Amino acid sequence: MEIVGRSHFTPPPPKFVNKLLSFISIKSTMNISKIRNIGIMAHIDAGKTTTTERMLYYSGYTRALGDVDDGDTVTDFMAQERERGITIQSAAVTFDWKSHRINLIDTPGHVDFTVEVERALRVLDGAVAVFDASAGVEAQTLTVWRQADKHHVPRVCFLNKMDNLGLSIESIRAKLKANPVLLQVPVGSGKNFTGLVDLLTKQKMTWKLNSTDDGRVFETKALSQADNPELLQEVREARTALIEQIADLDDEFAELLLTDFGDNFDAVPSSKLQEAVRRVTLARKGVPVLCGSSLKNKGVQPLIDAITDYLPAPNERHHDLDDLCALAFKVLHDKQRGPLVFLRIYSGTMKPQTAVYNINRDNTERMSRLLLPFADQHVEIPSLTAGNIALTVGLKQTVTGDTIVSSKSSAAAAARRAQSDRGKGKTRGEQANLVLSGVEVPDPVFFCSIEPPTLAKQADLENALNCLQREDPSLKVRVDPDSGQTILCGMGELHIEIIHDRIRREFGIETHLGPLQVAYRETVLQHASATDTLDRTIGERRHIVTVELAVSPVEDSSSMGSSCDFAFEEEVEEQLSPEVKDAVENGLQSSYLQGPLLGYPVQGVSTLIQNVSMEPGTSPAMVSACVSRCMLKAMRQAGGQVLEPVMSLEVTVGEAHLSSVLGDLSQRRGAVKDIQSRHDNKVLLATVPLAEMMGYSTILRTLTSGNATFSLELDTYEAMNSQDQSALLKRVAGLCL
């Protein structure tokens, strides 16, 4: 076994290496029920990375507490992360806690890197949602919570920076539409937060107020009559409310209460209450809520206990599969080893120096090495079993979202079993669809041109962009057909800035970026029909095809989820071969990439294929070309409409600067939705077009003397009014000239 690390990082201390190697030696015998695959998710600056750092320290896998401000945390190892004090890419770490193994992924909180959260949640079994207790639910909290809902991930909540318990609980209930199950009562708040009381065991945990204390040692004792009467009353009321809440959510616990403890609910054993809370959590009927202060080293150990107590093991997530099956969810590029592919193993055992079959790519690759990820340090291991997260070397064609199995024959056998089970009316979890669902990647909202310093560097730039695209599915690169320029498309200003910086640092290319532009969308205004005939002679072969189709706007075509759809008239569908149908679909998909007005992607258009006729020998490529040409004609006749991305904006600012922020927002076509109070600050909620938010961080800093923070999230696409659309058309026309 060996430790594999990136060359520009300091190797781990010998003590850490010995601990990790000792841990690896028992991996193969660990019961799958003792494994927890979890993610840390939250709004930016809520304390995810700081919480992760404390977990690693208290579990014994680091010898010193890292600090985000000092740039020495384990999971924020990129230079850009350490300079900015933010998480940019998700990082996986593995550690032991009380006979359990925890595979943890620390995810970014910035909206520009939301795809990192998406692909982490796709392969995790549970999550810890971290909240800033002084702020409650914030903008990006909503986004990551919705992502967890989509993947049916059970969660626990950690109220960090313990300040206002009531505010946080109410915001979870009101904004997230969740059912918070409070398991702890804090002792003090803010600077006076000293500990907490476990409502299940009625144990009081107290940490020292000394700011230099590392929090590893804390006092635990049962509550007694000598404690503060107000605290005793609060705990009594909170525990009664907890018992009643769990009884409402779990029938088994309710029956136990009525049968054995009808006269005295408070006599319910903590073990029975804990079992019921676990059932409620796994059924996603409620979310356990814990509290603490990671930066002040308080409350993290009980949080790790809650991860093992309440979040599911891999075998509790109904992954009913046979033989080896794994999902690739992340790719990193290493200059020495090539692509490093992260895999979540759902079944079977993975070993190095073996061939595996990629179902999505329909090819077989040899995996040369198998590693256990620990942030930027990787430990080589001889095998890894189901329920774990692995890092592999040698899979050069595999990308994010691919399904990996042991062989092509095993994939065929699994498909036959799935077909047989469906025929018998059985349901076998994910085996009913052998290809595991991949990772949904949002469309970019910004784009700009990128140019190398000289033509001699063009090939190097293309290689760098290919590597970065493989790592980051939300990064799109295309070539403008008119200008021949390379176009970089990303999720925001920061996203593109980070990509630009990585090209310079990691690939040694000083590139030039063009002006940042908004990625608009286009749709149609009304119903229209078109017919087109393509007649081409290539060599001795003549290709003739005629297409008739109709387009119309779908209902609410400007919403984010409004995609394009198509259908064949029944008679037409019956006449066409599968090959021709595929050619028609390919032609439609290519036409959706460039709208009739400005060439932006099209959304919210419904297409009906009314006729496809062709001479014998006409190639599918000619059918696709004719469909694309006919679609463009129909969309032009239907009238084009530009849709612009509109953002949800949340600004936290002191009351003294509120009027300045509101005045600036009105000049940006912003619409104020609400103004809330949060301690001494005001929280401004608004919607504003993305095009008006260029450089907003600098303007806001100037307006408020640096005393304000903001967050943006894509809300929807709205139709531009005729005046703004005309101005955009003229501006784009001017750029083209």
TrEMBL record:
PANTHER family: RIBOSOME-RELEASING FACTOR 2, MITOCHONDRIAL, TRANSLATION ELONGATION FACTOR G-RELATED. GO terms for biological process: mitochondrial translation; ribosome disassembly. Belongs to the TRAFAC class translation factor GTPase superfamily. Classic translation factor GTPase family. EF-G/EF-2 subfamily. It catalyses: GTP + H2O = GDP + phosphate + H(+). PROSITE patterns: G_TR_1, G_TR_2. Residues 33-315 form the Tr-type G domain. Keywords: GTP-binding, Hydrolase, Mitochondrion, Nucleotide-binding, Protein biosynthesis. GO terms for molecular function: GTP binding; GTPase activity. It comes from Myripristis murdjan. It comes from the Eukaryota. It is found in: Mitochondrion. GTP binds at residues 42-49, 106-110, 160-163. Pfam families: EFG_C (PF00679), EFG_III (PF14492), EFG_IV (PF03764), GTP_EFTU (PF00009), GTP_EFTU_D2 (PF03144). One of its GO terms (cellular component) is mitochondrial matrix. The lineage of its organism: Eukaryota, Metazoa, Chordata, Craniata, Vertebrata. InterPro entries: EFG2, EFG_II, EFG_III, EFG_III/V, EFG_V, EFG_V-like, EFTu-like_2, G_TR_CS. This is Ribosome-releasing factor 2, mitochondrial. Mitochondrial GTPase that mediates the disassembly of ribosomes from messenger RNA at the termination of mitochondrial protein biosynthesis. Acts in collaboration with MRRF. GTP hydrolysis follows the ribosome disassembly and probably occurs on the ribosome large subunit. Not involved in the GTP-dependent ribosomal translocation step during translation elongation.
